[in-house]
Amino acid sequence: MKIILAGEGAIGHKHMAALRRIDDVEVVALAGGIADDTEAFASEFGIERWTTDLGEALTLDADAAILATPTQLHAAQAIETMRAGKHVLVEIPMADTLADSEAVVRVQQETGVTAMVCHTRRFNPSHQWIHERIQRGELTLQHLVVETFFFRRENRNALGKPRTWTDHLLWHHSCHTVDLFGYQTGQRITAGWAQQGPTHPELGIAMDMTIGMSVPSGALCTLSLSFNNDGPLGTFFRYICNNGTYIARYDDLVDGYDNPVDLSGVAISDDGIELQDREFISAIREGREPNASVAQCLGAMETIDMLEKSMSER
Q: pTM (2 decimals)?
């Protein structure tokens, strides 16, 4: 399968590493934003063709594109890719407004291509282990408590390089948890609120945020997010269930007393990004809807829109 990778930043590197571990997949072109960085990325990974024009890349002989580009470009680029007849995997979130998210879903329905969002938490072995037990009735989620903490007072990416765009706690980082809460409970999020701290004078975004949500069963989700946290970075999920407590740290899982949970046999890999990319490729080959299709993930965008409106009402 021939893939176009768009985005030369930190997440693009992670996708490239994952794709190299999947059989019969070739990245035939790289479409980046900054010419020097794009050329360096292409040279590092031996990608023969590179460009700073996604439209040019989409004219090439390729089956699909993976969009690891700035959030503000996701919707337009996903639509452009689908209308070019290519399958598309777009980084989270699929858009930064509900209207644009709905447009992405509508174009997927019109074109019939495979379109999926990088809701990686659905694929991390740690969260898969929990999901399987909820599905079997062995666990019932009572409260999902999540911390998403970064130290990002300057506009830099995960590699420490200057960013050309501004990240967002609500539309980007909360999206992982919003989708995961609905996915793990198997229910629509029917209530939610959010509040945010002061706006950064230069970045123009809130640096701290608190979110609360619930589903019809009564299960709760409490999410704390910060770009001000000077300490361990990342997202940590505490599943408080009727039959045990578990803490997921990306691909690892421990119980409430920090004892490791054996995840061997959960999946073919212990890398959530690789598992997510494998799902995208398998869905294309099998002609089926992928887990985390744009249609499945629209509910998360509807919830985030509700949360945004709750802040304006306060």
A: 0.93
